[in-house]
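Thread: Inhibitor of KinA sporulation pathway (Predicted exonuclease), structure

OP (GT): Posting the sequence first so everyone is looking at the same thing. Length is 194 residues per the record. Can we get the structure tokens written out before standup tomorrow? I want them in the notebook alongside the other entries.
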Amino acid sequence: MTPEPLNALLNVIDVEATCWEGPPPAGQVSEIIEIGVCVLDLRTLERVERRSLLVRPERSQVSAFCTALTSLTPEAVAAGLTFPEACGVLRREYRSDSRPWASWGDYDRRQFQRQVGQAPYPFGARHTNAKAVYAAAFGLPRPGMAQALVHAGLPLVGTHHRGGDDAWNIAALIAHLVRRGHWPAAAAAVPRGH
């Protein structure tokens, strides 16, 4: 493996988790059922890879509410990876333990931290909350991803609340921030007019 330039690539992560219309049923907890990954090249601002890893829950079931929100069915996630296997893919294929990463808000980071008993935490310390950066850059209350896309004049690609599609869209918002000089890790790496 050739070393990549410092901060050249950014992993954009979006997770979907088991959820219910009300509180979780007795004995169930919210668990990651999909990890969306989009690799953004911070030099070219191109989204160079997009992937969705389905993850099999161990302590919860995919509810009808969750399927309606995400389009993920119990059968689809039952065929997914275990959480430790998915974390291994992130480390091996996306260098998640050394590459900087971002998510829209802190929910995704916190969800991984809640599940670390099942597998080692797959990420390094360099996390950026893209929602907070976007809100500060444009003086907005913290917008949802879809609202930020409208604000930025960017299309919502794919299905909202699917990890791979949401990671792709979040990467477009990060590229929008970089172009305007608002992305903290990229300010020195990318020319302002790019």
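GT: Both are above now. Quick notes for whoever picks this up: The chain is about 35% helix and 20% strand. Residues 186-194 have pLDDT under 50 and may be disordered.
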